[in-house]
Amino acid sequence: MLDYLLTEEQIMVRDLARKIAQEKVLPVRAELDEKEIFPWDIMKIFAEADLCGLWIPEKYGGFGQSVMAFCLATEEISRVCGGVGVTFAATGLGGTPILLFGTEEQKQKYLPALASGKKLAAFGLTEANAGSDASGLETTATKDGDYFILNGTKQWITNGGEAETYSVVAITDKTTGPRGATAFILEKDTPGFTFGKKEKKMGIRCSATRELVFQDCKIHKSQILGKEGMGFIVAMRTLDMTRPGIGAQAVGIAQGALDESIKYARQRVQFGKPIISIQAIQHMLADMATQIEASRALVYSVARLVDSGSKEFTKEASMAKLIASDTAMFVTTQAVQILAGYGYMREYPVEKMMRDAKITQIYEGTNQIQRNQIGLALVKESAKK
């Protein structure tokens, strides 16, 4: 691995996350995946280790609002288990709208509990007819004096049903297009707010994915994030901030698959010698390692760009998520091929890694949407020259 000139604190975070992943996650990852067990016990360990607040400022009990540290921890956890990795990271997705757009009162109320790990968060944007096209939202929030009445359903929400704090986007004015959406903070026990069944997924099976159901759910206007009509801005800014984290998850999954591939190739003997001595296998490993390092370098660079206070990083965040998730899918597929029949069996972890890798190309904006974002940014940049 390249020397990324990490600070002492960043190295501490990385090493601590790696230690917990190896000692606590590795022994149970197969069971968590097979039985689809939400990893509450492991989340409590992360909380005790003060890893839950890496992305939150110190004044709210966090590490200091470091996207880089958050990415380092997410990568190390995902290197062992992508499902546990996304469970850890999804609170960052759910809490980032509060961090970016919350009032001081809202931040004081919600962020310390997230930083301590006492509560988890989730982000509610996707619907049956609104995924890549967020303008297709159908969940409504109808004004009623000082309150809003929410009706509708959010789909495929990570940490759904397990989290206590939710950032949700709903339509408050159907006549104004993208300016007609508003973001709200909701708490789990709000009357009229319930959950659908836990979804059965291809990968990241220990992670909880459920519908959020709103039926005449009454919330006070003080729970608006930002201002009325800023919902799409809240959502897009949030995704820009969190996409490096998905990139880190993907890099971690890919690195875990490479680790397993090398380990197996050194042990597996064919034609009288370990298969790692065969040039065809070496070339496969070389391509895997090169793409992982290139992806890691971009993810880290974008994380540092975000931490620098830059206001413009949509294109770069999309690039990081795009290359890392495509790499994860490529590397895990190659890993299954290297392990051959063993790679296809549940006894070995690379089939799980391949299943886990696929979702990184889909959630928080499909990779086709990332290419759209990058292309639009290039068009805008060229027009300025």
CATH architectural name of the largest domain = Up-down Bundle
CATH topology of the largest domain: Butyryl-CoA Dehydrogenase, subunit A, domain 3
Enumerate the spans where pLDDT stays under 50 for 5 or more consecutive residues: none
Helical segment count: 11
Characterization of the model:
- This protein has 385 residues and is α+β, with helices and mostly antiparallel strands.
- It has three domains: 8-120, Acyl-CoA dehydrogenase/oxidase, N-terminal domain (Butyryl-Coa Dehydrogenase, subunit A, domain 1, Orthogonal Bundle); 122-229, Beta Barrel (Butyryl-CoA Dehydrogenase, subunit A, domain 2); 232-384, Butyryl-CoA Dehydrogenase, subunit A, domain 3 (Up-down Bundle).
- It is built from eleven helices and ten strands.
- The protein has helices at residues 8-25, 29-35, 40-48, 67-80, 82-101, 104-116, 231-267, 279-307, 314-343, 350-359, 367-384; strands at 121-124, 140-144, 147-158, 165-171, 181-187, 193-195, 209-220, 224-225, 269-270, 273-274.
- The strands form three sheets. A four-stranded mixed β-sheet has the order 1-4-5-8.
- Strand 9 and strand 10 (273-274) form a beta hairpin.
- Helix 4 runs antiparallel to helix 5, helix 5 packs antiparallel against helix 6 (104-116) and helix 9 (314-343) packs antiparallel against helix 10.
- The longest helix is centred in the middle third of the chain and has 37 residues, at 231-267.
- It is globular, with a radius of gyration of 21 Å.
- The mean pLDDT is 96.
